[in-house]
């Protein structure tokens, strides 16, 4: 872990849950990134207060407004990030923002399907499009061989619930719209891995485990109703995984423990 240095990282949906914990872990690294872009849709809202407190204490944390369902806000954030980076590229982009809503084959509606798809799939697509030139710049400016998060990487936070092959084991979780969106995000990751390979940008989908967050609670299964892992346990694992990602993880889905999941 000590040798793993990322100059710049951007996390979407970083005001709470796994996103906020990622920001805390990047700050707490022995060699933290010089620039940590913590993006959220409402930086002035009460839900961003903890993030704002962090940014007030750590000058390397830069809060940017970014609503993944608003193309204008994505482009504006990319412009601000580019200006802040002052000629450097962006090493690591983590598409973390996501939503879930309870839905079964019987209850799923067109509104629910489209809204979850918009946030969980269209959002990551547009965010990566907008920041692609900065990821490319980071890859071009690096003298590291191979692929890594310290060079240039696009990590999409997905879910085992989007794994087609694993569905018989997880079908008891009634989130059909979410499952379909994460299956599509997995496909997007695969497409990105094909499209950005020559540019040297590592593209990986990552399942964070079942985590005690608002989303984890909403997707809650069984009487426990809300997650196996604390955000700290999940993100501690994710940080180790990010440190070890290489071309062998390009275009695949891995877990917070570094194991490969089938699509
Ligand atoms: P939370 O509900 O705790 O946090 C979700 C985050 O996404 C919030 O910061 C929220 O911001 C943000 N967000 C939602 N919609 C948008 C949007 N349109 N634009 C910008 N930000 C948005 O969820 P988690 O931390 O648990 O989830 C993070 C990721 O991990 C998601 O992609 C989720 O699918 C994935 N995941 C989570 C699992 C779990 O068990 N928790 C399991 C598998 C995957 P706001 O405060 O403004 O709503």
UniProtKB/TrEMBL annotation:
Transmembrane segments: none annotated. Coiled coil: none annotated. One of its GO terms (molecular function) is oxidoreductase activity. It holds the Pfam family adh_short. It comes from the Eukaryota. InterPro entries: Fungal_SecMetab_SDRs (IPR051468), NAD(P)-bd_dom_sf (IPR036291), SDR_fam (IPR002347). GO terms for cellular component: cytoplasm. Gene3D superfamilies: NAD(P)-binding Rossmann-like Domain. Belongs to the short-chain dehydrogenases/reductases (SDR) family. This is C-factor-like. The lineage of its organism: Eukaryota, Metazoa, Chordata, Craniata, Vertebrata.
């Amino acid at each position: 872990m000590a040798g793993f240095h990322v100059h710049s990282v951007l996390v979407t949906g970083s005001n709470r849950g796994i996103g906020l914990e990622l920001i805390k872990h990047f700050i707490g690294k022995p060699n933290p990134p010089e620039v940590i872009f913590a993006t959220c849709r409402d930086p002035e809202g009460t839900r961003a207060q903890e993030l704002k407190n962090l940014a007030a204490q750590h000058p390397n944390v830069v809060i940017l407004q970014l609503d993944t369902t608003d193309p204008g806000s994505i482009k504006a954030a990319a412009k601000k990030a580019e200006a802040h980076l002052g000629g450097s590229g962006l090493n690591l982009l983590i598409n973390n923002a996501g939503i879930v809503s309870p839905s079964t084959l019987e209850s799923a509606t067109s509104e629910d399907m489209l809204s979850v798809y918009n946030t969980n799939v269209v959002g990551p697509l547009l965010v990566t499009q907008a920041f692609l030139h900065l990821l490319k710049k980071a890859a071009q400016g690096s003298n590291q061989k191979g692929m890594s998060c310290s060079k240039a990487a696009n990590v999409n936070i997905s879910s085992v619930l989007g794994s087609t092959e694993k569905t018989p084991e997880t079908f008891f979780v009634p989130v059909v719209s979410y499952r379909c969106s994460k299956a599509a995000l997995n496909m997007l990751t695969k497409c990105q891995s094909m499209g950005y390979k020559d540019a040297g940008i590592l593209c990986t989908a990552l399942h964070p485990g079942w985590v005690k967050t608002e989303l984890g609670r909403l997707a809650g299964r069984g009487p426990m109703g809300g997650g196996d892992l604390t955000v700290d346990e999940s993100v501690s694992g994710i940080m180790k995984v990010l440190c070890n990602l290489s071309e062998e993880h390009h275009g695949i889905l891995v877990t917070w423990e570094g194991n490969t999941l089938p699509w």
